[in-house]
Structures are given as structure tokens and as C-alpha cells.
Design brief:
27% of the residues lie in helices and 37% in strands. The chain is of the alpha+beta class. It has a single domain, classed as Hypothetical upf0131 protein ytfp. The strands form two sheets. Strands 1-3-2-4-5 form a five-stranded mixed barrel. A hairpin with a 2-residue loop joins strand 6 and strand 7. Helix 4 crosses helix 5. The chain is globular, with a radius of gyration of 16 Å.
Length: 180
């Protein structure tokens, strides 16, 4: 396991942009809106485990190249770093479609941090790229994985974005299609 960037206050940061925002699954000291530049939230990954299967893949979000992404930064004590990162690796790297990265984010409260992020590996066979809305709906509807229904993943993520006053037109469009 690598050494994650820490600061003088004995904590490190994790960036969430999808289900980590509403179901982090780890203890944290503080959560704050944050923005990363150079990456954007995208429904670009075929889900074979959490929200679908290899036989019936769902779609989940990834941080893909370009643009910006506003999500949540979680401040975590270094005293639980090892178990927190192990948990995230088990959750996020189950098929290795994500790459563990350290990226700079700007906190809504001010200041810049280095945070642990999981970005999509565009060379992985589960990388879906930018799918048309009709194909997204086809993949999402009816897909179920170990973590539940694919529709619920998008509805819960969109609800959290709304609660945080984060506009994401594509997420809003997906949920509108799912709930109409």
C-alpha cells in the first residue's frame, strides 16, 4: 500500500463523486463540497459487480478526463488510514476499472487539498465511454448487482447532488428518464 499524502493535522482526504457521497462506508472527521479540475463525473463504466453482472452489466460513474467535477471531500484521521484505504480498495478496485490517484481539489470552505481519488481506466474492458442516452437507459434499467438496483444508484446519487446544490445536467436527465 502506498503512502497517502497527509498534512500537519494528521489526516488525509478522500474525494467522492458518486455513491461515496451518500454511502461512504468509512468514518470521517468532516465532509465538505470540493471541486477537482481536469476530471469530470461520467456514466462511463459497465458495472459487473456492484450494479450489474457480466451477463447483464449496469452502468456506474467514473471520473473521466477533462472538465471539472464537484463532489464531496472527506477528511479522515490518519489513525484509521490503513483500514479506510483497504476498504476503499476492496470496494472500488474489485475489477480494477478504477485507478487510484492523488489529485488536487479546492474545498468550498477555501483552501486546496490533495485527495485520494478513483479515476476510470480508459483502457479497461469495462470502460463504456460516452454512451447515448438511449443506450444508457437500456443498460441501467433492470440491472442489479451486489449493491442493488442500478436505477437506485443513479436516483440516490442525483438526490445527494441536489441536496448539495450541485448541478449535473446529465445526471438530472438520466433520473428524469428513469422516473418518467
Amino acid at each position: 500500500m502506498g503512502d497517502y499524502q497527509q498534512d500537519e493535522e494528521n489526516h488525509f482526504w478522500i474525494f467522492g463523486y458518486g455513491s461515496l457521497m451518500w454511502r461512504p462506508g468509512f468514518d470521517y472527521l468532516e465532509a465538505c463540497k470540493a471541486t477537482i479540475t481536469g476530471l469530470h463525473r461520467a456514466p462511463c463504466i459497465y458495472s459487473w459487480v456492484h450494479r450489474g453482472t457480466q451477463e447483464r452489466p449496469g452502468i456506474v460513474l467514473g471520473l473521466d478526463r477533462g472538465g471539472t467535477c464537484t463532489g464531496m471531500a472527506f477528511k479522515v484521521s490518519n489513525t484509521i488510514q490503513k483500514e479506510t484505504v483497504a476498504y476503499l480498495q476492496e470496494r472500488e478496485l474489485v475489477t480494477n476499472v478504477y485507478l487510484e490517484s492523488h489529485d488536487r481539489a479546492v474545498l468550498e470552505t477555501g483552501g486546496e487539498i490533495s485527495c485520494l481519488t478513483y479515476i476510470v481506466d480508459q483502457n479497461h474492458e469495462q470502460y463504456a465511454g460516452q454512451l447515448p442516452i438511449d443506450e444508457l437507459m437500456h443498460q441501467i434499467r433492470g440491472a442489479i448487482g451486489q449493491s442493488g438496483r442500478n436505477e437506485d444508484y443513479f436516483i440516490n446519487t442525483a438526490q445527494k447532488l441536489k441536496e448539495l446544490d450541485i448541478r449535473d445536467e446529465l445526471m438530472e436527465s438520466i433520473v428524469k428518464h428513469l422516473t418518467d
